[in-house]
Amino acid sequence: MRRFRNRTEAGQQLAKKLSAYANRTDVLVLGLPRGGVPVAYEVAVALNLPLDICLVRKLGAPGNKELAMGAIGMGGVMVLNHDVVESLQVSTQAIARVVALEEKELERRDRAYRGERPFPDLQGLSIVLVDDGIATGATLRAAIATLRQQQPARIIVAVPVAPLSTYNELKAEVDEVVSLVTPERFYSISVWYDQFDQTTDEEVRHLLLERPSVISY
Question: Pairing with 179, which of 18, 39, 122, 170 sits 20 to 30 Å away (CA)?
């Protein structure tokens, strides 16, 4: 079973699969905070591309926050995993309560990571959307829906690991999907890493300062 030492190594290996995008002035790398940002940073550095973030928040199921029943993104985007919602019989009121909490956290993170810096204009750009792995895909789909509002030229999803079924589904939803490992038996993202510590807000801020989202035309 292929494993990654940490997010840094995963990002470096992922960059090799994305070499066709190196040094291009029409490409922007976006990491999904928090765990996707260290991976995205390594991709951006290796390919000499600018880096920014795409803020989304998972909607944890009542009583099991780790299980995603959906996700929200900036601009009022919400994606629900209807299979999870129906199987757990989650009420509309319960979903609304979780959404309200996560909207506050989304706003907090936007202020913490970006401050007064506006989100870059994505129209006409090719976006490499990076996370440290895909589980249900709900968070990533919210990110994709958020990005589509700005009409980028292309969306490329790039991750170290994704379940084979989700990988195949996403290929029909975006322009390109790159995943280094696509197991049929997935378990969880952490299983594919030797070191999978929680990424901190401070680390995200530091990486964004190290690799700013400045695009030269």
Answer: 122
Dist CA 26 CA 216 (whole Å)? 9
Q: What is the rounded distance in angstroms from the CA atom of residue 128 to the CA atom of residue 157?
A: 6
Question: Could you read off the pLDDT of 90-103 as tens digits, one per residue?
Answer: 999 999 999 999 99
Beta bridge partners of residue 130, listed in sequence order? 31, 158
Is the Cβ–Cβ distance between 173 and 144 less than 8 Å?
yes
What confidence score (pLDDT) does residue 1 get?
A: 62
- Alpha-carbon gap, residue 53 to 190, rounded angstroms: 21
User: Distances in Å between the alpha carbon of 58 and those of 10, 34, 72, 92, 193?
Assistant: 22, 12, 7, 16, 21
Q: Are 76 and 100 in contact (CB under 8 A)?
A: no
Are 43 and 19 a contacting pair, CB within 8 Å? no
Q: pLDDT digits over 149-178, tens only?
A: 899 999 999 999 999 999 999 999 999 999
Rounded Cα distance between 21 and 162, Å, is 21
